[in-house]
Amino acid sequence: MRDDALAPAKLDDPNLKVVDVGGGTGFCTLGVVKTVKPENVTLMDQSPHQLAKAKAKPALKGVTILEGDAEDLPFPTDTFDRYVSAGSIEYWPEPQRGIREAYRVIKEGGIACMIGPVHPTHPVSRFFADAWMLFPTEEEYIDWFTKAGFTDVKMTRIGPKWYRGVRRHGLIMGCSVTGVKPKAGDSPLVMGPKAEVSGKMNTNPFSFLLNLILGTTAGFYYFCLPIYMYIKNLVWPKNWEM
């Protein structure tokens, strides 16, 4: 699935300058360095613990690895040829701001590729998806890219061969969205200052326990769902369906 998700980014030149935003342990970056020289790749994430795991991977030797905020990238405008981000947008407080930053940091003609979950349509899956994390709709992805100024915005649905339903139950890695930066400079989208994140914790024990139970249940649901679908496909392969 990783190679399928990265294919729309057109990482077809070893000399491309690429940034992987929210790259965590470097799983997506490992796909990038298959075709791009490691010294031309930057991996950025907010978690030092995740980045420590990335630094320990021999295949990522030569990659620039640093901490940073996806919604406030520490790079000059028009720096990279490609921007990729996989499995990160669902944790962003303001996805539109992050995609606006993607536009800013790539060069004219560059491509941004956002790989993320897709919102389910099945009512039970939709309930757990909304309780667990951000699952954007396909329409939201397209709208965010378009508002940021990207042109030739395209969406590619991705998923394992045994997956059924496309959007019915959603997918943690459900789509790959790309856009092209038409001209150099900052994004035409004007946004106010980044909202301050409150450091206050919710001290209500009942509310905390409820959120913990709900989040744990949702996580377990989305752990079991692909196992069920995989086994279902073994017992009743998709090509047997009428």
From TrEMBL:
Domain MPBQ/MBSQ family SAM-binding methyltransferase profile residue range list: 1-178
Keywords, alphabetical: Membrane, Transmembrane, Transmembrane helix
GO biological process, alphabetically ordered: methylation
Coiled-coil annotated spans: none
TM stretches of this protein: 208-231
PANTHER family referenced in this protein's UniProt entry, alphabetically: 2-METHYL-6-PHYTYL-1,4-HYDROQUINONE METHYLTRANSFERASE 2, CHLOROPLASTIC, 2-METHYL-6-PHYTYL-1,4-HYDROQUINONE METHYLTRANSFERASE, CHLOROPLASTIC
UniProt cross-references to InterPro entries, sorted A to Z: Methyltransf_11, MPBQ/MSBQ_MT, SAM-dependent_MTases_sf, SAM_MPBQ_MSBQ_MT
Pfam families referenced in this protein's UniProt entry, alphabetically: Methyltransf_11
Protein name as catalogued: MPBQ/MBSQ family SAM-binding methyltransferase profile domain-containing protein
Keyword Membrane: yes
GO molecular function term, any single one: 2-methyl-6-phytyl-1,4-benzoquinone methyltransferase activity
